[in-house]
Design a protein that fits this description.
four-stranded antiparallel β-sheet; 12 strands; 11% strand
Length: 536
């Protein structure tokens, strides 16, 4: 930004020098008529044009680079905060976060473009004022007195734009968030026939966003129009005063031309204050939104304990969280533990505490005797992987999605029967996968996501309903593959699949937010409530 400011100042100094040199050329021609001196001053004028042209080009390039670099750094900081292992309590929709990381980050970055331009405008104004002082102290004082007044006016007029720009970004981000969520849940919406309701919700949000954008545009137009009119009146006054001085013989014809040229030149630095103030107003509003995300407290307090070696013993002791009411259970090292929740809310609450998305309000969750709340975030994510039921895939090939999980790719592909998926795809494992895996069917997406989780081979793996979109035969094969690949490692399967539960060493049945029964699947099916939960 310093380079851009220096080059911009050089450009403005050159612009201010042009009318002065034109005035000198005119005076030389009128007073002496000497061809040599006239040619010399024309050469000086040409050199100034070359200098100011190059200065403008490279100052703008440097400013744009600083702007994009700043926006990139803001986006990186936002991504790091959102993806932090401790989570973030920002409570925003994913589409809203995307809007903040794109539009707001860009507006914040543009401050790095606005500041050098503002600096060069101030330099241009000062150089122009000094040049006018040389022509006439009256004109110079007029500029020096009027400039602060115009700057103050631009700041006052920019306040409504700042407020409305903030509202505009809020509405636009909300509309983006709603749109992203509607697209992500389009199949579910069609399944329950809620397309019309969803469309009405988005229509209301979109119209609110449009209204906020129109209000912000009106504020911007009012700011630009007001400043343009004010500077136009000011420049007219300068021209009138200069004309009067020339008519009275106080200044020469060349000085009059220089004064008028300087008055025209001053239009840019004066009008640029309006543009810069608008950018700064929008930048301040966007910076506040970015700061809200960056300053959001972690969803859970960060831990500090490292885990040099993990045996894999997971224990819940009297856990109270969400719908859970004093749940106590243990998964021993190397055990494949099945968990059946009669109420899906119990499963969601259990997964949340195991993933440490929340800390229980009562009781404790421990790993090898160490409370999860005390374990350092990245160490916990390496030791315990929770594979959600609706896990998204990444853009790339099928093979790349599985390899993103970890090194045991070949075993994972076999265990999750991704070979069957590959045979049905045009390019096998190298078939491209669209964002979130929407180019695959539900069953294909589920198996690829399961393979990715298995490839990570963490000491503790928690999977939630990994086979709901596959047929019964494939379900049995997947259960055998999970058991085979997770031998010696702790695995918790939260599901109602008879095939998965039959493969488990032990099953815990949750009902009413508490443990209702524990034992092998074959024994628990005699319980009516359990059988209803599993076979319904």
């Amino acid at each position: 930004m310093t380079v851009a400011s220096a080059l911009g100042a050089a450009h403005q100094a050159g612009e201010a020098a042009v009318p002065l040199l034109v005035g000198v050329v005119i005076d030389e021609a009128v007073r002496t008529g000497a061809g040599g001196r006239l040619a010399f001053w024309i050469g000086v004028l040409a050199a100034v044009f070359v200098t100011l042209s190059l200065s403008f080009r490279f100052s703008l390039r440097s400013g744009e680079k600083a702007s994009h670099q700043a926006a990139h750094e803001v986006r990186s900081a936002l991504a790091a905060r959102v993806l932090s292992t401790d989570g973030a309590a920002h409570g925003r929709l994913s589409g809203e976060l995307a809007s903040i990381a794109t539009s707001d980050a860009q507006r914040v970055g543009q401050v790095n473009l606005a500041l050098p331009i503002a600096f060069s405008a101030v330099v241009g104004l000062l150089v122009g004022a000094v040049a006018l002082l040389r022509v006439s102290w009256v004109l110079g004082v007029l500029v020096l007195v009027a400039a602060p007044v115009l700057l103050g006016l631009a700041h006052v007029l920019g306040k409504p734009l700042e407020r409305r720009s903030d509202a505009e970004q809020d509405r636009a981000a909300l509309a983006s968030g709603v749109a992203a969520d509607l697209v992500a849940g389009l199949r579910a919406l069609k399944g329950i026939g809620a397309e019309a309701t969803a469309a009405r919700r988005y229509r209301v949000t979109s119209r609110s966003s449009m209204a906020a954008a129109i209000r912000a545009a009106r504020s911007r137009a009012w700011l630009d129009g007001s400043m343009l009119a004010t500077t136009g009146v000011f420049l007219a006054v300068v021209a009138l005063v200069g004309g009067h001085l020339a008519a009275s013989g106080t200044i020469t014809v060349g000085e009059l031309v220089a004064a008028v040229g300087l008055a025209q030149f001053l239009l840019w630095p004066l009008s640029i204050f309006s543009w810069v103030n608008g950018l700064l107003a929008q930048g301040r509003a966007s910076a506040a939104r970015v700061a809200e995300v960056l300053a959001a407290p972690p969803a859970v307090p960060p831990g500090a304990v490292a885990l040099p070696a993990v045996a894999g013993r997971v224990e819940l002791a009297g856990v109270v969280s969400g719908s859970l009411r004093g749940v106590s259970l243990t998964a021993s090292p190397g055990e494949l533990l099945g968990v059946v929740a009669r109420d899906p809310a119990d499963a969601v609450s259990l997964l949340a505490v195991l993933a440490r998305e929340v800390d229980p309000s009562g009781g404790a969750v421990t790993l090898d005797g160490v409370p999860l709340s005390a374990v350092e975030g990245s160490a916990l994510r390496s030791a315990v992987v929770v594979a959600a039921h609706d896990a998204d895939l990444f853009e790339g090939s099928v093979r790349e999605n599985v390899a993103a999980g970890g090194p045991r790719v070949a075993e994972a592909l076999d265990a999750a029967r991704v070979d069957d998926v590959a045979r049905a795809l045009p390019h096998g494992l190298d078939t491209p996968v669209s964002a979130r895996g929407r180019s695959l069917s539900g069953g294909q997406r589920q198996r690829v996501a399961l393979a990715r989780a298995l490839a990570a081979a963490p000491p503790v793996l928690v999977v939630h309903d990994p086979t709901t979109a596959v047929d019964a035969v494939t379900e049995v094969s997947l259960a055998a593959g999970i058991k085979r690949m997770r031998t010696g490692l702790t695995t918790i399967v939260v599901a109602t699949s008879p095939a998965l539960l039959a493969a488990a060493d032990r099953v815990v049945f949750l009902a009413g937010g508490a443990v209702a029964a524990t034992g092998p699947h074959a024994d628990l099916v005699a319980d009516d409530d359990y059988r209803l939960a599993v076979l319904s």
